[in-house]
Design a protein that fits this description.
protoporphyrinogen ix oxidase, domain 3, binds flavin-adenine dinucleotide, single chain, alpha/beta, Polyamine Oxidase, Chain A, domain 2, globular, eight-stranded mixed β-sheet, 3 domains, FAD/NAD(P)-binding domain, seven-stranded mixed β-sheet, 13 helices, 19 strands
Amino acid sequence: MTTLRLDDGHRGDTIRRQVDVLVVGGGPCGLTAALAAARRGLSVELVEAAPSLGGMAASFTVAGQRVDLGSHRLHPSAPPGVLELLNGLLGSDLQARERNGRLRLRDRWVRFPLRPGDMARNLPPAFVIGAATDALIGPFRRATDDSYAEFVRAGLGSSTLTEFHGPMATKLWGLPPERLSAELARKRISQRTPTRILARVASTTRNRGATFLYPRHGYGQITERLAEAATEHGARLRTGCSVVSLAGDAHRPTATLSGGEAVTAGRVLWTAPADTLRNPLGLEPVPTPPMRGMVLVYVGIDQSRYTPFDAHYVPTPGIAFSRFSEPKNYRNGPDPADRSVLCFEIPCSFGDEIWSGADDGLVGLALDGLARLGLPTVRTVETAVRRLRSVYPVLTLDDAEPGEHPGSRTIRPGSEAVPGVTVLGRQGLAVADNLHHVIDMALSAVDCLDEDVQWRDDVWLGHRRRFEHFVVED
Ligand SMILES: Cc1cc2nc3c(=O)[nH]c(=O)nc-3n(C[C@H](O)[C@H](O)[C@H](O)COP(=O)(O)OP(=O)(O)OC[C@H]3O[C@@H](n4cnc5c(N)ncnc54)[C@H](O)[C@@H]3O)c2cc1C
């Protein structure tokens, strides 16, 4: 990294640095990009606007326990390169755990992932008759439009739409599934026909359960290790810092940071929301694709365990949360023996009554949901609330082109759109991807830099086409 001190003629000395790669955003995508580039011997600077690193994949402490920003797991379907990286960083702290969730169907709980014996005992009889009929006539059903509702109805049938996917979509995106684009369902629902659901049930049974990976000290241990390793390899990571202007040519864009320094980079990798790139470029704001946010309510309780389940999926209308989870059940870690924490995910939109609700009111909403589900009351020892402004891009039937990437309406994601800048990551591309997807994006982006730090656009565009087929794992 070259640091020069030059007189800018106005404000005295301006610190000017030259780096090979400037990364914007310190979530898992940005941190992986910083680490991968630093490991190649490139000089790297990363700027994160928030006071701490980790983005949506960070952890923090409530009632003496590490908790995540909602239910997070690392999926074993992650590409080998991603698993190799994370196994190398976390070693035996990355634990393989058996999934043990449940979902609410009408007034019953059904184990999730589905298991034959439990389905026979607990699926509501009316649902079974409806789903069986749907399966029989499935081959003759066709979608009548490109909506979320028709995608689910044509593939899985009306019963699954009415009882689960429909109300869940309404909670997550704030609109009925008839108004949402099928593109959202294509990105989210991997078991799209009854045959595929049954094949998954059979494979889960054969393998005695479905597993996931999870770090001993909370999901945030992933980003913490990424940050430590990037620093060990010489990357400079800064928090509370953002880019206020961006200028220069395609070969060496110069970013002016909020502290006043100017950083000239061989390449800028932009993992922050795409609309935050318009301001430094001096471009007018454009209407961004609406994003659905989420309020996370944490309730520390005075008992060692609330249930043995990791996550509870609740599509039920009238209950504010879409899911609640018990972080302690995701790991075998150093958690307090006599306490547990419940984390409630309440989807909302920026500025609405949930988003702006007082913390104690939101805690009340979460506890009211437990009561409506007929679950035991809890003795609360500590509570916390966190707000995530941009979680799910909302694509409606009216405004989506089939196959369209929501982020492409904010700023074109190809590097040709903004000279010297590549937009990537969940926020950059406005896609609801998993952590392993954004790590894959970051590794792919660094691979596109040749030995002279020249960007190989054709290789990147090939990766971009691959990213469009990512399907979110739950
Ligand atoms: C409730 C929930 C559950 C999830 N469950 C799972 C799961 O089970 N498994 C899984 O794999 N994934 C899961 N995910 C997804 C996973 O958390 C994300 O895909 C991943 O964290 C995205 O990483 P990112 O780096 O692309 O974006 P982010 O983590 O959002 O990081 C972007 C960073 O950019 C920063 N930033 C914003 N503006 C600026 C600016 N102007 N300048 C500088 N920095 C800026 C932000 O502060 C943030 O730190 C879940 C997400 C949520 C919300």
